[in-house]
Amino acid sequence: MKIAIIAVGRVKERGLRDAIDDYEKRIKRYAKLDEIELEDGSTSEVEARFRKAIPARARVVALEVEGRRMTSEKFARYVEQCEIGAVPALAFVIGGSYGLPKSVSDTADLKLSLSDMILPHRLARLFLAEQIYRAFTILRNEPYSH
C-alpha cells in the first residue's frame, strides 16, 4: 500500500523536519510513502493542487478538528482494513492556516481528528507521521522504540 501525506505549506524548522523525516524513514519499512508539500494560495488554487496530488483511487483521510477521534489501536485497525481491502493508496490531507478547502474535506472517505485542539500544520504532520508508524508496529506486534 502507498501512503501519501499531502499538506499545505512547508516544514522549515530543523528540529520538526528532522523528527518528521525520522518517522517517515521508519514508515518506509512498511509502505511506500510520499510527502507532498503544496503551495498555499486561493481556495480554488489549493483545491486544484490537492486534486492533482491525491493518488488515483486513494482512500482520502482529511485531518479535521471536527473529525472522528480514534485511539492508536483503532487507527491501526483502520490502516489494516485498508491493507486487507487492497486499497492502493491512503492519502492524508492537511490544510494550511485556513484549513482544508470545503470540497476536499467533503469528499474525503474519513475525517480524522488528531486532537480537540487546532494544531499548526507542522505539528499535525509530525503527530500524524508518528501515529502512522505506531499503527504499523501495532499491526505487526513489534515493540515500539522511542
TrEMBL record:
A GO term for molecular function: rRNA (pseudouridine-N3-)-methyltransferase activity
Superkingdom, taxonomy of origin: Bacteria
CDD domains named among the record's database cross-references: RlmH-like
Binding residues for S-adenosyl-L-methionine: 63, 95, 114-119
InterPro entries: Alpha/beta_knot_MTases, RlmH-like, tRNA_m1G_MTases_N
GO CC list: cytoplasm
Localisation per UniProt entry: Cytoplasm
EC number in record: 2.1.1.177
Keyword rRNA processing attributed: yes
Keywords: Cytoplasm, Methyltransferase, rRNA processing, S-adenosyl-L-methionine, Transferase
Catalytic activity: pseudouridine(1915) in 23S rRNA + S-adenosyl-L-methionine = N(3)-methylpseudouridine(1915) in 23S rRNA + S-adenosyl-L-homocysteine + H(+)
Summary of the function given for this chain in its UniProt record: Specifically methylates the pseudouridine at position 1915 (m3Psi1915) in 23S rRNA.
Assembly behavior: Homodimer.
Sequence similarity: Belongs to the RNA methyltransferase RlmH family.
Protein name: Ribosomal RNA large subunit methyltransferase H
Origin species: Sandaracinus amylolyticus
Gene giving rise to this polypeptide: rlmH
